[in-house]
UniProtKB/TrEMBL annotation:
The lineage of its organism: Eukaryota, Metazoa, Chordata, Craniata, Vertebrata. Keywords: Coiled coil. Pfam families: CENP-P. One of its GO terms (cellular component) is chromosome, centromeric region. GO terms for biological process: CENP-A containing chromatin assembly. This is CENPP protein. The keyword Translocase does not apply. Residues 6-40 form a coiled coil. The gene is Cenpp.
Length: 190
């Protein structure tokens, strides 16, 4: 290998390292921005949006108003998909048992986080005590396309055991984002 070819590879490696550094800084900035809002603030915003949406639909039932509302909802959905990286392709829910104290439902959910596909199947027990509603996830089964990585396989197994969906979604979001970065980086070397 001559020096010019070697230098070209060195230059490409340095450019990739700089790109990785910039992407890491950008990612850390986005993480800091997203932590500025507490869970209570997010829930209050969602409730306010729901009240606003319900108020709009009660008095305006014309087709043009419904079409405009549908377009707004599609815009909101595309924003949330771009913001979180999650794109859900299917969801099914089946009520297995309904009692006075609670409801057991079986959920099947599939989608993608960035380019990483996943499927979830779980049972959700919802119980209402006084004015509080609590939910318990059981029989969680996760199928992912990237299970050949032993660390991901161990992570998925531990999530399935404890039934912690929130941790799964938070972790898979970060993992899938960096999975994409790695995939793009390795494409430069092919």
């Amino acid at each position: 290998m001559d020096n010019s070819t070697f230098q070209a590879y060195e230059d490409e490696i340095q450019a990739l390292e700089e790109e990785i550094r910039l992407l890491t800084e950008k990612y850390e900035d986005l993480q800091q921005e997203s932590t500025f809002f507490s869970d209570e603030e997010i829930l209050e915003s969602i409730k306010a949006l729901q009240r606003e949406t319900q108020g709009e639909t009660k008095g305006h039932e014309s087709p043009s108003d419904l079409k405009a509302q549908l377009e707004r909802l599609e815009t909101d959905l595309s924003f949330l998909t771009a913001f979180t990286g999650f794109h859900f392709t299917s969801h099914s829910k089946k009520t297995l048992e309904k009692t006075r104290d609670g409801t057991v439902q079986k959920h099947r959910l599939s989608g993608k986080c960035h380019s990483l596909s996943f499927q979830l199947e779980f049972q959700l027990l919802e119980m209402q005590n006084n004015e509080k509603v609590s939910a318990v996830v059981s029989d969680l089964s996760i199928i992912m396309e990237s299970r050949e990585d032993s660390n991901v396989s161990k992570f998925v197994s531990s999530i399935e055991e404890c039934g912690d969906l929130l941790t799964f979604f938070r972790s898979i979001s970060t993992y899938a984002e960096w999975y994409e970065h790695r995939r793009h980086t390795f494409l430069h070397f092919k």
